[in-house]
Specification:
Chain lengths: ~325, ~325
């Protein structure tokens, strides 16, 4: 007979999954009112939080539990990558239906633990409660040397605009997921990118350490939504060349280009580089493609050049308050 | 004609409410991928997060929006008080129905901003999305001198057990709230304590700084749930004297005592003090009553002595996974 879950048994399951070792900086983790983390002089703490909600960010009958665990942490850590920092530890607010506290929770914790190890981000603490839907909020603390973190606000007219990897593949993976019956298992590279995104930590840290980027952010809601954010923060505009976009080879060009412009969930890095630094950006960084897709302009407009035609670049990315 | 809300307008409303001043430690707040906070050597960061969910922690038709704003932050900050630390900044994950992005959000931000100022805890960043219910998760970063934070695990047999303020009043306030028709306005001291709890920051910091407590936590789920947690963390038991409990004068003694034992949401501090330090604990600290309610025992049982009778102290506080 299965014992009824209570908050204590749920917390114990989480504590077992994450062990009780003590890394040097995380002085106290789990089981107290709060966690303790040792500060050092000359560093800046990078703080960010992200929702991961059933029905909004994942689907109950489609996303495997371990992908939910992986992705909820990976996407929050991507914000640390976007500042050029190194993740340190995270807090997890988790709300679950009672029937999700068994096998589903085991799978979820497996994925979360794998992400925690792979990304070097320790579980520091959290809060658990019951809810009719799965609700997750992850807060991550990362770190960068003082003054080294890359912001959205440093782009200047004449800078080149770069993006890592390919754009639109995660959206293509979501399309594949919606065609699959039941929980997705296996699948194409696009589906894997949708389910198990990798934050570009090494690239972000390298750009920050070597002061190569003038501004940076991660592409989470789609290029057409995120690029205007970087430009607004910097008080500039941009011109993007459709022909140069690193699109997916897994669909036809027109579709791939549309996905690259508006698809979300890629967690690639979008960054601007001053003229004098452009030659220092390689075509590949540790096997990850880096592509120059346009330039920053003085005029505060976002333009898209496609062959001979230049048009205003309309935001078509994801906004939770826009009706589909 | 009211413009349709989108994520950008929602974020702008939040940014307007919280201004754009830059306190010394919060190097970068709002509007980027993450916030930046300057570390110092010799300090420990205190990290904690708390849910505040419609239907679980507050009721749509009962709790005023500004009380939701106040309380979601105050209860998370209470965990920093429970470590003896000083709050620094917070992250807010906020999900709202579209019809809550107008007047309700204004009231919510008013209460949140008031708590932020009163508790000295700046908004560093957050994540917003749409949801059919109001969902809030608050992550707080506090600070304490290295080694000074008070944990749950330091209580030893023979220590005296103290609690601040009175217990059970917030639960009494909740009872009053449920009797009121519609949104609560005004009300008794008990209702105010339920709606606008004050974390015991000054007391916590004083106890930590002067190394007066051997263990400490805040009473958020009720004494009968929280005291066993402190005892389990310390590997000890406790004996509590019902006659000495600081109960509310707003109801009859039997009811007040039951509320003091099992009522949640008081956010008072529960702490143990070694024999040699007991005389240093005043009956009042800055107008806040401090009451000795029992002692820590070697035997790992929690006992309640009521007159001549001693009984095991059954947990009757709040557990989200227990069916009512």
């Amino acid at each position: 007979m299965r014992r009824k879950p209570n908050e204590k048994s749920l917390i114990q399951k989480i504590e077992r999954a994450f062990g009780n070792k003590r890394p040097s900086r995380l002085v106290l983790a789990l089981g107290d009112d709060a966690a303790l983390w040792a500060e050092t002089r000359g560093s800046e703490l990078i703080l960010t939080c992200d929702w991961f909600l059933e029905g909004t960010h994942f689907l109950r009958g489609k996303h495997p539990a371990d992908a939910v665990g992986w992705k909820c942490l990976a996407r929050a850590v991507s914000d640390v990558a976007a500042m050029g920092g190194a993740p340190q530890c995270f807090l997890m607010s988790l709300a679950l239906p009672e029937e999700f506290t068994g096998k589903w929770l085991d799978g979820f914790l497996r994925g979360l633990r794998r992400a925690s190890k792979a990304l070097g981000c320790e579980l520091a603490g959290g809060d658990t409660t019951r809810h009719e839907k799965v609700l997750i909020s992850i807060a991550v603390a990362g770190e960068a040397a003082r003054g080294a973190a890359l912001r959205r606000s440093g782009a200047a007219a004449g800078d080149a605009v770069f993006v890592s990897g390919t754009l639109g593949e995660a959206q293509l993976g979501l399309r594949e997921l919606c065609r699959v019956r039941g929980i997705a298992r296996g699948g194409s590279a696009a589906l894997r990118k949708h389910l198990y995104p990798w934050p570009r930590l090494e690239l972000g840290q390298w750009l920050a350490k070597n002061r190569l980027a003038s501004a940076m952010m991660d592409v989470s809601d789609g290029l057409s939504t995120d690029l205007p954010r970087l430009c607004a923060a910097s008080g500039v505009g941009a011109r993007i060349y459709a022909d140069s976009l690193p699109v997916s080879a897994l669909t036809d060009l027109q579709d791939a280009r549309r996905l690259a412009l508006h698809g979300g969930d890629d967690y690639e890095l979008l960054f601007s580089v001053s003229k004098q630094n452009v030659h220092r950006i390689p075509r590949e960084f540790q096997g990850l493609q880096l592509t120059r897709i346009g330039e920053i302009t003085r005029e505060r407009k976002i333009l898209l050049t496609e062959g001979e035609k230049t048009v205003p670049f309309e935001s078509g990315g994801w906004d939770p308050f826009r009706k589909e």
